[in-house]
Structures are given as C-alpha cells and as structure tokens.
Amino acid sequence: MQPPSPPHHPGERQPWGAITAFLLPALLLYAGFTCYPVLRTWWNSFHKVLPRRPDEFLGLANYEALLLQDDIFWRAVKNTLTWASISPLVEVSLGLLLALALYAKIPGARLFRIAWFTPVLMSYVVVGILWVWIYNFDWGAANAILRAVGLKSLAHAWLGDPKVALPSLVFITSWMWTGFNMVVLLAALHSLPSEVLEAAELDNCGWGRKLVFVIVPLVKPTILNLIVLSFIGKMKIFDLVWITTKGGPLWATETVSTYLYKRAFEWTSFDLGYPSTIATVWFVIVLGSVLLLSWAFRQRQKLEY
Amino acid sequence: MAVVTLEGLSKRYDSGSAQAVDGVTLTVADGEFMVLLGPSGCGKSTTLRMVAGLESITSGALAIDGARMNDVPAKDRDIAMVFQSYALYPHMDVMGNLAFGLRRRAVPKAEIERRVRDVAATLGLADLLARKPYQLSGGQRQRVALGRAIVRDPKVFLFDEPLSNLDAALRVSMRGELIRLHQRLKATMIYVTHDQVEAMTMGSRICIMNRGRVVQIGAPLDVYRRPANTFVAGFLGNPPMNLLPARVAAAQEGLEVGALALPLERAAHLPPGMPVTFGVRAEDVAEVPHPRAAGGGIRLAAEVATVEPLGAETILGLQIQGSERDVMARVGRDSRARRGDRIEAWLDPAAVQLFDAATGDVIPA
Amino acid sequence: MLNLRSLVRAGTILVLCVYTAFAAGPFVWAATLSLRTTSEIALDHFALPGILHWEKFPAAWYGSNYHVYFGNSLFVVLTAVAVVTVAGAMAAHCFARYRFRLNRVVYFAIFSTIIFPPQITILALYQILVQYGLYNSLVGLALVYVAIQLPLTVYILESFFARIPSDLFDAARMDGYSEWEIFWRVSLPIAFPAIATTVILNTILLWNEFLYAVVLITDDNNRTLPLGIQRFMGDQLEDVGMIATGLMIAIVPVILVYAFFSEKLIQGMTAGAVK
C-alpha cells in the first residue's frame, strides 16, 4: 500500500489559491475530526475528565493504574491480540485455497465469487444476531447439525462457555472475511502473467510444487497486504462482540474496544480520562504492531529477492 | 496578424539546476510555419509550453504582436495547441471535444454549432461527431485534436510533436494535410518535432535547438546546405554530413585529413596547422565515373566498406586511406559497387564545409 | 488419468458448493425466518415458510419504529457520502495534479489514518460533539462519518486521478477553463468510474456502521438502523421472527446495491489490497 509518487509538473506556476481551495474542506475535516480528537484523547489520558467539572491533572496515575493494576485490560489485550493473530492466518490461507479452486476454471465461478463476497457486506450487527441464533444451544444450527450427525456430545452453549466463546467469535469473523480474501487473491492470480504458470506446466511441476514454488511467491505481496488488513480489522473489533457477548462470559471475549466503551459509558465513574488512557496505550500498540509487521514483511521480501 | 517574438527566453526549474531553456531569441513572422527541431531534451517543448503559457518564464520576454505576454494567463493569449497525446476529453464525443473550447468564450450556441460542423466537414469528421474518442482510429483522433485548435480560430497555433504517435504511412499523409491546412489558414504556427523530415518538409523556417539554446535559424534548405556548426551538420540529413577531423596543410594549399592530402583552395587563407573539421554531404561524394566529376574536383582512392541499397539510391560507406571514419556517399541505384571493391571517389569542392575544430562553428567560405 | 482428473474436479466443485452453502446459508435462513411467525418458528426452526407472512414487514416498519431508523440511516449516509465524495475528490485531485511542497507529507498524513483504531478519536469526538451541540444529532454523526471515510476515499481517488494525463488539463487551461472548472468538467467526469466505486463502497460501509453511532446517538428518534436493530433485539429477545424481519429490512438495501453494482463494490473493497 505504498502511495504513488506525485506526478511531475515541472516548473508549472503553482496556483496556490486553487490548491488551498481544493484542500481546505478535507483539511478542515481532517484537523477537526481526526487530529484534534487524537490530541485531545492524549491530553485526557493525563486527567480525570468528569462532565461539568474542570479536568483534574493526574500525571501518569492513569497509566500506572492501567499498565500495572488493570487485569481486565490485559485480558482484553490478550483476547484482541489472539484474535488478531489467528484470524489473518485462517482467512488468508482458506481464501488462497478457494481462490486456487476458482482459478482452475470451475463452471459458475462468477456466481460463486458473488456469493462468497456477501458476508462482508453485512453489518456486524446483522451478522452478530444471526450467529447468536446459529450458536443457540437449544435450536441453533450449529448444535442441530452436530446432533444430526451423531456428535451430540460436542454440542455446546457456544457463546456461554468461557472456554469456547472466543474461538466461536473468531470463527464468525473467519466466516465473514474468507470470501473477501478469496476475491482479492483471485484478482491477484488473474493478474499474474500466464507465461509463468505455463512455464511451470512445461517444467512438469505438480500442483503442490507449483503452489509452493511459483504461485505463493508471486502473490506474496497481496498475501502480506491481506494479512495486515485483517490484522488491523481485528484490532478494531467492537460491534460483533457488543451484539453477541458484550465481552462475557467472565471477560472471555472482552476486547480492548468493548472494555474501553464500558469504562467510558457504562461504569458509573463517568470518567473519560481513564478510557482515554486505554485508547492512547492501545493506539501505540496498534501502530507499533502494524509498523513492526510491515517492517518484518519488507525485510523478508528483501532477503528473498 | 500575429508575430510571436521570443527575446532571451529562459527557463530554470529549480534555482541551482541548469537552464532547461537558455536565452532563446526568435521571431516568428505572421503566417509563418516555424519548426523547432532538436534532439529530445533540447528544450524545444519547454519553449513551446512557455509560449503557450503552460510554463512560467524564468527570464526574457515573450510578445505576441508586440504585446508582452509573460504574465498573461494561457487562456487569454489566444493560442491553440495540439498535443502529442491529442489530449482528447475521453468523456465527451467528438462534437463536445470540438465545442469545449468555444463554450468558454461566449460564442453563441448556433455559431458554435456552425463552426464545429464547418471544421468537422473540412477534416472529414462530419460522420463521427457522435463518437467518443475511444471509438476513433489514431488518425481520426489526430484530426479531432487538430479540429479543436482550428475551431477556436486562434492567432497562433502550437504543435507539440503531433504526429509522433501515428504509424509511418499515416504520418506522411497527415504531414501533407498539415501543410495544406497552413496554406489555407495562413496562420502563424509553431511546430515542435524531433523528426527532421517533418521539419524539412513543413517548415517555412527551422529553428534548431540543442541544450536549451538556439543553434541555427533558417529556411530548411539553407540550414541543410549551410549548417552553422558541426551539431547541425551532424543532426540534419540522413545520413548526416560526413565530418572528418583535419588540419590546414602547412606546405601547399589544402588540408591534411589523417595521412591524406586534399587540395582545397579555400584552406589557403587559414593559418597553417589549424585544426579543422572537414564536412561534406553524402550526395556531394560520387563514384567515378560520374558526370559531375568531369569538371574537376577532388579524387580519392577508396575501398567500399558497406553497401546499403535503399531502392531509389544506394549509400556506400567508403574507407578512405588515412581516415579513421568511413565517408558516406549517396550514389545512384545502378551502382554495382560491392563490399571490398576498390574504387575512385570524387568530392565536390564547392560543397565542402569547414568548421573550426575548437568551437565547432562553420568557417565562412 | 482422465478419470482421476474429473474425480478431482468433481471433488473441488463439491467442496465449493459446501462452502457456498456455508457462506450464504445464514442469510437464506434469516430470509425464511423473516417470513414466518415466531410461534411457527418455535415448532421447527429450519422449516421453509408455509404461509408467507409478508404482513410482518409493514408491522416491523411502522410498529417498531423502523421507518424512522431507516430514514435516519438514509439521511446520515447520503449526506456523509455526498460530502466525503466532493471533499475527498477535491483533495485527491489536488494531490494528483499539483506539485507543491508538502504534497506527499499531507497526503500521507491523511492516508495513514486508515490504520488508526477508532478508539483513539471516539471519546474525544463524543466530548467535542457534546460541546458543540452536535451530540445525539444526525448532522454530527454525518460529519464524523465524513471524517472516517475520508482517507480511503482520498486514497482510491488519488490513485485514479494520478493516471489522467496532464495534457488534458493543459488543453483545458488553454481552452480557457479555470482550475475549478477543470476539476468539475474534466477531472470528475473522467474519474466517474472511480467516483462510483467510492460512493458505493462508502454507502455500504456507513450503512453498516455501529460503533460511532452507538457512542454518539442515544435518542430513539435519531437512531440509525444498526442501532435500531440492536435495541429491538434487546427489547424483544424472544421474538425471533420479528427480529429476522428487522434484519431483512436492513439487509435488503445492501443486497439491492450489491445486485446492481457487485463488480464496482468488489473493486472498491479490494482496492489497495492487490499489488
């Protein structure tokens, strides 16, 4: 996702009036609704922020409490990171397999493509409600299928059992996003020069070898982008959890987003300072891990070419 | 009436970097077809864009009919330009493309319609008015680009390598069309190209540029016959003028080209020992016997090193004893010379040009 | 050999069909539920609808305030998409067309917010909107929506605008058009395919948006559809049939948009991922 370099209009007299006019709306929105809130959140994180009362400076007290004493926060971080590290692998690898199946010229590919893409278009609210029903212990589809195939003992209260609640939610996001990854990878496969694959064909490469030595290396940039994209998406996750479990049972599915929302709007403390501290710390973690991820991927690519 | 005057026109992109255009002085007379010719990167396009108002002028003055234009915006200069890429608006049909420039200029609707149809008719576009650019062939797009300029009826037309995206056959026919267009409109035109055939065939005058500077201005044949320096001599003509390093002979009237002594009266008034460049066009070198050779001239022994039969004529590369470079000779299509043949070559002394080896400038006869 | 091939092929198609059932099944199920009454559903959750209870749709639409939620969503989304398209296109045009100092810096600053987690702005946005009387207001929410979709819009449009040859702009300038007119009469029409992509993409994403809405809207009459559905589910947890009808009301517009513009949507969603 490297931004392209600017076009070259050498020596053109720059109409600064026009440039300002074109940029102004976007910049105002950006300043007012992105920059200012980020700075204000950061500022809040050092304060106790109560409605209708002047903010009280706390220094690093919020940070100390959060980083050293807040077990729920760390639980939420662990849950979110687990989610964000498992999901990309599942989604991208399944997506790649499906894309390869479609690439091998299956009849009705267009229809498949459209059908598989559908789940990403639905809001997490809709998806969440649907899956609350699917996971329902008494009449949900999940248990119904298990019972139908004689695996009655495997039936669970999927979202009620702390042990399986988080994996159940991860499953939902994989259900949603695998199709998306498939479509993207399919586009990447189609943009490959066909000579490369034909050459592999001539070299009498089996499908497995072709996959590992030819296809995967060629679509690797796309795969890495998808991993980062999926990672970022899971680090943000809120809606699905909020609709299905609200972070329960026993914080088993608590994510940083839901915890922050609870601290800000559901706890009776009414303080916005502490949740702002959560936001700031989380912001640093997200930014840091995305940069680390892109850096690591870039290193590996450098080594291989 | 439209006289375009460039007075010391210069362009520098960033302070500190070299001048892209360096003091170009040039007057394009009313109704003249001026060709700016030069290798890529010589500053010809930048010069044209400064005239158009698309690039700012770093220093110097630009005037149209005596009125200073430096700070007049492009749209108020009454100039139309045809771009190399045609720059047709892809979302408009041919009609829309032709009319776009007029809509802005408070021309009444009926008048726009009439002018567009007029121009479309003369350019053979009448049946294509409803088409989008992507539905047109390369030649048709070129015509639309041309029509878009003509319909505006500007004081000055600018062309930025308009034919270089066409295939060879189309280029020849469009060249003819542009010449006829110029004769019909009698407008002032400035035409940028790197193609010397276009320059020679179309230009009333040619302005040759190199490294941001004007090297020579003149009528095509004048420039061809009397290049101002070795750059022009080596740039114009195919093959280019033969240029051989030489020295004014000390003993007798003539030149020493390597170990070879050439009698040449014109060298007499030059200081003996002066290093010069000896230049002669391929068509002024012949294979003896030749009718022109009967009236005297310079005769040399040569060995045929290369033979390029082009159909209408044959180009021989002649290895002349004592010279490192082959001398190209344009001979008749009937030449039976073969590689390795030893022949006698003839040079027309009147056609020889001498250049100062130090500066490259021509030494006047 | 041939037999093995066709066996593998048949197997592949079978797997793909199973996956398709898995991917689309939940929606088909929800669709059947939406046409059945809750008491019918309680008897058998997986039966096909016997009698099609279309009357449930008007019942949900008027009886459960869905017409208000739907209208709110429509207003917020259309306003936000209109503003973000114009503001984003203007900025993208500027980044792509003019070379000026800080061009890349400003572009990258806006672009990089794509990876910001929403938490970093949401609390402060809440405070700011409360402060300026925009809390619990659809206009306030629309403005926030504009801001969150701006980076993606600028990114997609910039990469398209950058491919328009600059000769076109030069030609328009010589034809006497101002920078502003060039934007409206040359850039925008040429970029129509990319604009359409961002419009459709933004519409879907904002139609589904939940987090900002739940923080910034409390009044029932200002709820957007996702909030309305959530409230409805909270109130009528057991009324599966009615909730399903509500879900379908939220899904249908998305399905319609998708049916007409599936290629554009896929293109928009996948922009930036393929390189």
List keywords for this structure.
heterotrimer; A: 305 residues; mainly alpha; MetI-like fold; two-stranded antiparallel sheet; 12 helices; 72% helix; 1% strand; globular; disordered N terminus; B: 365 residues; alpha+beta; 6-stranded mixed β-sheet; 5-stranded antiparallel β-sheet; 8 helices; 20 strands; 23% helix; elongated
Short description, anyone?
The complex is a heterotrimer of chains A (305), B (365) and C (275). By secondary structure, chain B is α+β, with helices and mostly antiparallel strands.
CATH level 4 superfamily of chain A = MetI-like
Radius of gyration of chain A: 24 Å
State the low-pLDDT regions of chain A, or none: 1-11
What is the SS-derived class of chain A? Answer: mainly alpha
- The helix/strand series of chain A, from N terminus to C terminus, equals HEEHHHHHHHHHHH
The CATH topology of chain C corresponds to MetI-like fold
Please, how many domains of chain A? Answer: 1
Q: Strand portion of chain A, in percent?
A: under 5%
- CATH-assigned fold name of chain A: MetI-like fold
Report the radius of gyration of chain C as a whole number of Å. Answer: 23 Å
Mean pLDDT over the full residue set of chain C: 86
Please give the CATH architecture of chain A: Orthogonal Bundle
Specify the CATH architecture of chain C.
Orthogonal Bundle
